[in-house]
Structure formats: structure tokens, C-alpha cells
Design brief:
The chain is an alpha+beta fold. The chain has helices at residues 25-28, 58-66, 73-80, 84-96, 110-131; strands spanning 5-7, 13-15, 44-47, 71-72, 100-103. The chain has a domain at 51-105: Arc Repressor Mutant, subunit A (Orthogonal Bundle), CATH 1.10.10. This is DUF742 domain-containing protein.
């Protein structure tokens, strides 16, 4: 088994996993920087159970493995350690071939947000008073 070596700036060698990803992110998305669908970082995606014919490779398989249940774009990007824009391109490819479904985050109206915030703050305040 060959060990890949790269040198740090100080001259110390990096071995395998310590060297990090050796492929530039734009090569994963074939140089594309814009997904074919709109994704917010809070967009929830989930696998449909269909196996993609056109979207194959280790990165697509890793993303599909994370999408067994609803998961946000931000979480997927963090798990696969890729920039969000590259992750969005991969996700858009999987949505286009039917392997994923995407749901935009629910919009919260200004009126309901202020009621929720007040109720939450009151509950926190009551909890703090009980501890004193």
C-alpha cells in the first residue's frame, strides 16, 4: 500500500488523511459554480430511494448516504467538507435525476415570529427565576 506524502510549509510531511482532500472542489462539480435549482442553506433534502443513473461517483454516493432522512444543505456541506456552492451543485444534480427531493425552509411571517420570540423569552426568564 503506497503512502501519499505532501510537505507542509515547515517541511514536515503530511500522510494520507492529514493531507486533506487532494482534489480541488471545482473538479468535483466539473467546474460548475451554479446549481440548476435554487437551494438555501436551510433547504431540506431527502433521498427518494431511486438510484441515479447519471449521477455516480464517490461524492454523489456520500451525499446520498447522508440523506436517509431530511437533512439541511448546510449539514451536508459540513459532513462532506466541501464549500456550500459545490454541495449545492451536487444536490441539484441528484434532484435533477430524481434521487433527491428538496423542500425550501418554511417562511415565518413577522407576526408569528414576534409571538414565538416573546413566548420563548418568557419561558427562559421563568426558568432562570426558578433556578435562583
Amino acid at each position: 500500500m503506497a503512502v501519499r506524502r505532501r510537505r507542509r510549509q515547515g517541511g514536515e510531511p503530511w500522510f494520507d488523511d492529514a493531507a486533506g482532500r487532494l482534489v480541488r472542489p471545482y473538479t468535483i462539480s466539473n467546474g460548475r459554480t451554479r446549481p440548476t435549482a435554487h437551494f438555501d442553506l436551510l433547504t431540506m433534502v431527502m433521498a427518494t430511494g431511486r438510484r441515479p443513473v447519471s449521477c455516480q461517483g464517490p461524492d454523489y454516493a456520500q451525499v446520498l448516504g447522508l440523506c436517509g432522512g431530511p437533512v439541511s444543505v448546510a449539514e451536508i456541506a459540513a459532513h462532506i467538507r466541501l464549500p456550500a456552492v459545490v454541495t449545492k451543485v451536487l444536490l441539484a444534480d441528484l434532484v435533477d435525476c430524481g434521487a433527491l427531493t428538496a423542500r425550501a425552509p418554511a417562511a415565518v411571517s413577522a407576526g408569528s415570529a414576534s409571538r414565538t420570540d416573546r413566548a420563548l423569552l418568557e419561558a427562559v426568564l421563568n426558568g432562570l427565576r426558578k433556578r435562583l
